[in-house]
Each structure stands twice: as structure tokens, then as C-alpha cells.
Amino acid sequence: MTERIPDRLRSYFEIESVPLTLSSRDRPDMPVVIANRAFCELSGYPPEEVIGRNCRFLQGEFDNSAERARVRECIEHEQDDYFILANRKKNGDRFLNFFYLAPILVPDCQERFVLGTQFDVTNELHDEVEGHFRKVGDVFGGTVEPGYSNQVVIESKKLAAISVRNVLQYILETEAGRHAKSLVAG
Fold first, then answer.
1. CATH at 88
2. How many CB atoms within 10 Å of residue 109?
């Protein structure tokens, strides 16, 4: 599934300590085509149980329908955004997943991709955890405002996720630039 993914992109996924997935927008059900070691450690799933599946398998029995609708809208409009999702690890432990997604343009590739960064924010958002697991939409869907300290956690995770996206896009753009220069020189 990763035959069209540039080597530098794969290398970045291998060294990045932030849990990452890359999914294909152009394949049925938007399967994961790359998941890094940090994602596998976070979720408890080995790569062979992640690649080829849509990440919603992490939801288990949780109803993330309001957030899932937002995810679909962002993907459809090729926008980036973040979400707080109730998820389950392979061992059954529940966690709050700060999930940031962003469209990724891979130069010289017809396929469209979506980058996913994930952070377990269960401990950081401890005040809202129990209520969030009961009804995901209540906490961040507008009926309950997160406290100031929780907002700081959210903002710091957003900055980290955006930084990962920017570094990744830079790597892809510089690779395309080097490729174009070698074609001109050759």
C-alpha cells in the first residue's frame, strides 16, 4: 500500500516521536497507508493490524457521531482541524484522543492523503474525562466549556500537530524541488 509514498516521507514517519498516521483519500474507506511506531505504541496495535483500515476502529463502542461528522466535513473541504475523540486501545483501555488531521500534498503523486496526529490527553483533561466518555459531544461540542488549564493543553497539542504538518510538508516540497532540479540538470 505504500508503494507511492516517497522514501523521505516514510523516513520521517519512522523517526517522528509524535503518533502519526497517513491515510489515502482516494481509496475506499480512507485506509491508513502508514502508521508510525509512536501510533502503534499509543494504540497498542501492531502495524499489520492498522495498515489498510480506517482509524475509526479505535472508537470501539463510543458514539463520536458529532465529531465524526466534523471529521468528514474537514476531509471533504480539504481543511485541517482538531477533534477530541473517545477511543479504545487494543488492550481495552479507554483514552481521550486529541486527533488533528490535515490534508497533505505529495508532489508528483496523484493520490491525496490525510495526515493524522494523535495525542492521549486523558490525564491532561482529567476533569472532563468521565463526562466525555459518557457523551463525547457535551464536553467539546459546545455545552460545556473546557477550563483554562485544559484549553492550554488543547492549544499546545494543536501547535505540536501543526508543527509536524509543516515539517512534513517542507520535507515533501524540498524533495520535489531536488527532483525537479535533477531532471533539469540531467
1. 3.30.450.20
2. 15
Does 114 map to a domain?
yes
State pTM to two decimals.
Answer: 0.76
Tell me which DSSP letter residue 105 carries.
-
Burial of 53 (0-12, 13-18, 19+ CB in 10 A): middle
The tens digit of pLDDT for each residue in 56-113 reads 899 888 887 888 899 999 999 999 898 888 899 999 998 889 899 999 888 777 888 9
Which residue range(s) make up the domain with 168?
7-185
Helical spans, DSSP H, in the chain: 7-15, 37-43, 65-76, 126-134, 136-140, 148-185
- The answer to whether residue 124 sits within a structural domain is yes
Smallest Cα–Cα separation from 133: which of 68, 87, 71?
87
166-to-56, 140, 161 alpha-carbon distances in Å: 25, 26, 9
**Cα-Cα end-to-end distance for the chain:** 30
Residue 109 falls inside a structural domain: yes
76, 78, 82, 86: CA torsion to nearest 10? 30
**How many domains is the chain built from?**
1
The answer as to whether 1 is a domain residue is no
CB 36 within 8 A of CB 13: yes
Residues near 104 by beta carbon (within 8 Å), at least 6 away in sequence: 22, 113, 114, 115, 165, 168, 169, 172
